[in-house]
Sequence to fold (312 residues):
Amino acid sequence: MPLLVDGRRVRLPQSAAELVRSHPCLEERARLLRGQSVQQVGPQGLLYVQQRELAVTSPKDGSVSVLGSDDATTCHIVVLRHTGNGATCLTHCDGSDTKAEVPLIMNSIKAFSDRAQCGRLEVHLVGGFSDDRQLSQKLTHQLLSEFDKQEDDVHLVTLCVTELNDREENENHFPIIYGIAVNIKTAEIYRASFRDRGPEAELRAARALAGGPMISIYDAHTQLLRIGPYSWMPFPHVDFWLQQDDQHILENLSTSPLAEPPHFVDHIRSTLLFLKKNPSPMNTLFPGNQALLYKKNQDGLWEKISSPRSCK
Fold:
C-alpha cells in the first residue's frame, strides 16, 4: 500500500522540496517545526535514542513519557505512530541499511497486541540538510521509498528533511533542527536537546561506531531498557585514530565536518577509547552473557537492575 499525504498517494521519486510543493500542508508543518525554540529535555520520564537504536512504547507506559534523539546532521530521526492505540516508535537512522530498518520500525508498532482497528499509521521525518556529499538527500529518498513499499498505508504528516531543514551561513550549509522529542501521551513533536542520554551512553555509542545494526533497546511491556549483550570486532587502527588531532578526526570520521555540534570530536575520542579498552565486550561488559537492564525509579530516572532474574 502507498505512502499517503492527506489521503493522496505520494508520487515518487521526488525530492523533499518537490514533495512539499505538491502538498502545501507539509510545507506549513515543516515551517512551524523549524520556527520553534529548542526545548531542553530533562531526564525524568525520558528515553533517549542513540544512532542505530529504536525504541517504541505507548501512552499506557508508566515509566517513559518522552522519546527523543539529537545530534542528527546527515542522519534522519523517524517517528512512527499509530493514532488508534498511541503506540509510538522513534529511531535515529544514518542510512546504513534503510531497507532493513523501515520494516523493523513498522513491526515495532505492529507488535503491540492491543493494536486498535481504528486509527492509522503516521510518520514524521526530521533531519539532514543540503550537505556537499548529498548523503541527506539519499537518505530522504531511501526512507520515503521504503515506507512507500510497506503493506500498510503510511500517512506522511511531517517532512522537515534535507533542503527543508537547511540554513546557509558564509556559503556553508547547516541543519536547522538537530534533535526532536515526542510526547507519548499527547503525540506532540518538538525541537529538543538533551543533556542526559541515559545509561551506558559510551557503550551504546561504541556499538554503533563499531558497525552494529539497528536494534530495539526498550521493552514497553516490562518497562525495561535492555543494553546488550553486544559483540564487535576490534576497531581498525584505533591507536592511529586516537593519536590524530581534532581536525583530522573531524574531517575523516564525520559525514559532515562543518555541521557537527561542538562536542563531536570529544565524543568520538571517548568512544574510540572505550572501544580500545573493550575489544571483546562479551568478556568484559556482559558477565554471564547477560544484558544490562535498567528501569525508571520513582524519580523518573534510570536505575540499574542488579540481576536479570530480579525483574521476573
In short: The chain is about 30% helix and 25% strand. Residues 135-148 form the longest helix (14 residues). The first strand starts at residue 3 and ends at 5.
